[in-house]
Amino acid sequence: MFDEKLYQETISALHASEDTISEVMNMTHKTKGRGSLRTAAVLAAVIAALCCTAAAAAALGLDQRLAEYFEATAEQEELLSTAAVPMNIVKRDSGAVLRIEQVIADRYCAAVLIDFTAPDGTVLDQDYYAFDRSVSATSRDGVKMETYGIGWEVLPSKTENETGRHATILMTIHSLKGEFNFIGAKVELTLDGLYRDNWLEELVVPGRWSCTFTLPETDPGRLCTVNESIEIEGKNAVLTTLYVSPLSLTCEIKQGTDDLKETVEPIYSDEGKESIAPEVTLQSGETVGAADWLFLITNYADKRGRYCFRMDEILDPETVSSVAVFGETFSVES
Amino acid sequence: MLTEEQFSYLAKKYMDTVFRLAFHYTKSRSESDDITQEVLLKLYRADKAFESEDHVRHWLIRVTVNECKRTFLSPWKRTEPIEDYAEQLAFKTPEHSELFHAVMALPQKYRVSIFLHYYEGYSCGEISQFLGIPNATVRTRLRRGREQLKTGLQEANNDV
Predict the structure, then answer these.
(1) Which of A24, A75, A322, B106 is the most core-located residue (most Cβ within 10 A)?
(2) Does B1 share its domain with B75?
(3) Going by C-beta distance under 8 Å and a sequence separation of 6 or more, which residues neighbour residue B36?
């Protein structure tokens, strides 16, 4: 018997955070008539234009589909392969076969390459699929992953898909806060039904596929401690770290002398990443800008922000001499 | 257009309603706070003559549903361990905590229908309008949601 009273009492315990209402009240005074604002805007991961091929990928241990996804040249594949580990995890349920073929990770981002075969009679011909899922991860030093983001993309299959039952799906995981680090982390993953969309309304293939695996042990990136004051539109914050890897550029800030909420507001304006405008200068003098953001998260409770970008080119962290963010340049020579 | 006073009154009164509905969709506190903020800003900017407070409440539910759907159309989602949030909620009894976890383990479509019907008190017909689904589907979701909830609670008790 469904106990309505108990349910009502239970749900009554849920409240919007006090910050939410005060933020709305502040913004209604500041932004009458202006565009949208969110305290922690997020945007989907980059949709890569799949154009570049790389014959040496397999030999280097990097799956061809990942090489194409990252638009890597042969040289860049070598960099990426240090962050990748081949897997051969095969799970079967309800007539479907799920194969985890490769994982690739840096400190804040991980991607899991999944080859999925639907049961007889099911055709996977759409350009988007998502699994219902639960993910837990523990870093090498025992730190549990806290808040995270999940993305799904369908990649071109490596083989002919005559039966239409195959789909290659890239699952991306982003660690959005805390000290958790993907390098060498143990991941417990349960994928629960393949759906037509993230809305999880249209179940395409039922089933449950669970597995545990360890992410690559080698950190492909460099973490640089900065702890320098920065200004964002005239307000003070502290840039704590910069992290450069072949997969991403991530900067972390914490509250300075000004309120963090007000300080990071420009980051979520229509200009978005232009407020951060990350640009890397290589030892050769060449500069590389950001292609897109992967996530822009401000954790107001911790008074910290983490902003992660995919760069225009795959970077060799050892060749990066400086990083410009928030209008200031920081040397990161090793 | 609402006056500042009207908006302030309505925002304070209904922010929890919006948050709870968003949480039934997303199971993420931060995502739900973002959605709440977005919906309330939409209310502030709404160039609309509301006929009554009930009209405002209907409008807020509809906008929240749309905002949640929009969030879920993104290929990228934010997730938080629900246990962390449950610990902070400080439920009165273990039964409340058990029920919370059982409800959150339900498929999203059942959670949302159950919330709108059993918490907000909307009829199946009203929920069908909010969600854009047939009346019979709402009834089915409520029935299946209740059944799954019962099974989930029984399994939880057996585990103890």
Answers:
(1) A24
(2) yes
(3) A16, A20, B15, B18, B19, B22
